[in-house]
From TrEMBL:
This enzyme scavenges exogenous and endogenous cytidine and 2'-deoxycytidine for UMP synthesis. It comes from Candidatus Blautia faecigallinarum. SUPFAM superfamilies: Cytidine deaminase-like (SSF53927). Residues 7-140 form the CMP/dCMP-type deaminase domain. Signal peptide: none annotated. Its cofactor is Zn(2+). This is Cytidine deaminase. Gene3D superfamilies: Cytidine Deaminase, domain 2. Keywords: Hydrolase, Metal-binding, Zinc. GO terms for biological process: nucleobase-containing small molecule metabolic process; pyrimidine-containing compound metabolic process. The active site is at E61 (proton donor). Pfam families: dCMP_cyt_deam_1.
Length: 143
């Protein structure tokens, strides 16, 4: 188990808040940012990118994962996710959707991968992937 240091968590959370500002959300106005940490300390950010054909929308978490995987990354330790309506002042805890949890399960260890849900740099909830996606369907399920 790789325990993240407090400073690493803060940096990841700060990155998620910066990524949230990049959101493209003309339809819902709900702006999400994600920051994904690799085992060797790199951070990949993502935002949600909406589409007039709503089903073509990509969530912030998947933008971060797909950017990282494209760059050759396969080993991830944690993700921070933040979101709020464009006009809201305060952030609420923003849990990842089911599709994004499934994408996490493709690449991340259920017991090790940490999911941080911040409202601010100091106030965040923390879960393992297994807590948010128990009994997941993975490659092993098909053996
Ligand atoms: N959204 C995310 O980016 N991540 C989630 O896990 C939940 C939902 C986005 C998709 C859409 O652009 C907006 O939030 C409203 O659903």
């Amino acid at each position: 188990m790789h325990a993240l240091k407090a400073e690493q968590k803060k940096e990841l959370i700060r990155s998620a808040f910066l990524a949230q500002k990049r959101a493209y959300t003309p339809y819902s106005g709900f702006q999400v940012g994600a920051a994904l940490l690799t085992r060797d300390g790199k951070i990949y950010e993502g935002c949600n990118i909406e589409n007039a054909s709503f089903g073509a929308t990509n969530c912030a978490e998947r933008t971060a994962f797909f950017r990282a995987v494209y760059e050759g990354e396969r080993d991830f330790l944690a993700i921070a996710i933040v979101g709020k309506p464009e006009r809201a002042q305060e952030f609420q805890y923003c849990a990842p959707c089911g599709i994004c949890r499934q994408v996490m399960a493709e690449f991340c260890s259920p017991k090790e991968f940490q999911i941080l849900l911040p409202r601010s740099e100091e106030d965040y909830k923390e879960y393992t992937l297994e807590e948010l996606l128990p009994l997941s369907f993975t490659e092993d399920s098909m053996k």
